[in-house]
Amino acid sequence: MATEALGLPFEVGTLSAWLVWILPFAAALIMPGIGKMSKNATGYVAVGFALMSALSAASMIPVALEAQELHHQIMWIEAIGLKGGVLADPLSIIMANVVGWISFLIMIYSTGYMKGDKDITRFWFWMMFFIGSMQLIVLSDNLLQVFFGWEGVGLASYALISFWYRDKKKDHVGTEGRTVLGMLDYYSPTHAGMKAFIMTKVGDVMMIAGMLLIFLFAGTFGFKELMGDTAWATAMSAQGLLVPAFVLLFGGAVGKSAQFPLNEWLLEAMTGPTAVSALIHAATMVKAGVFLVARIGPLVFALGAAGILADQFFEIVAWVGAITALLLATQGMVSPEIKKVLAYSTGSQIGYMMMAMGVAGLSHQYVDGYTAGFFHLISHAMFKASLFMAAGSLLHIVGSRFMSDMGGLRKQMKKTYAFMWAAGLGLMGAPFITTGFWSKDAIFAAVYESGNEWAMPLYAIAVLTAVITAFYTTRMIGMVFFGKKSKHIEKMEEEGHHIHEASLSMWIPYGILAVLTIGIGLIGLSTEEGLHELFVDYLEESFGITTEHAATETSILPEFLQGLNPIALGSSLAAFAIGIGLGYIFYIGRWVDPVRFVNSNIFFYAIHKIILNRWYLNAIIYWCFVVAPLWLARGVFRYFEKTAIDYGMNDGVQKAVGWSAKVVQGTQTGVSQSYLFVFGAGLLFVVLILLI
Question: Is 610 domain-assigned?
Answer without folding.
Answer: yes
